[in-house]
Amino acid sequence: MNTTEELRCELDHTDRRTLALIESLTDAQLDVPYHRGINPPIWELGHSAFFYEYFLLRKLGHAEPRMPGYDEIWDSFEIQHRNRWQDDVIPSKETAFDYYHRVLDETRKRLQVEELDPQEHYLCHYCIVHQNMHIESLIWARQTLGYPAPPSMISGAQHHAGPDPGGDAQVPGSTYAIGMPANSPEFATRMFSFDNERPGFETGVEPFAISKTLVSNREFLAFVKDGGYQSPEVWSYGGRWWLQEEGPAHPLYWREKKKDTWELRRFDQWIALPLDAPVLHVSYWEAEAFCNWADRRLPTEYEWEAAARGTKGTLFPWGDEMDPTRADLDVEEMGSANVDAFPASATPSGCLQMIGTAWEWTSNQYLPYPGFEVDIYPYMSTLQFGDHKTTKGGSCATSSCLIRSSYRQAYSPGRRDVFTGIRTCAK
Question: What 3-state DSSP class applies to 278?
Answer without folding.
Answer: strand
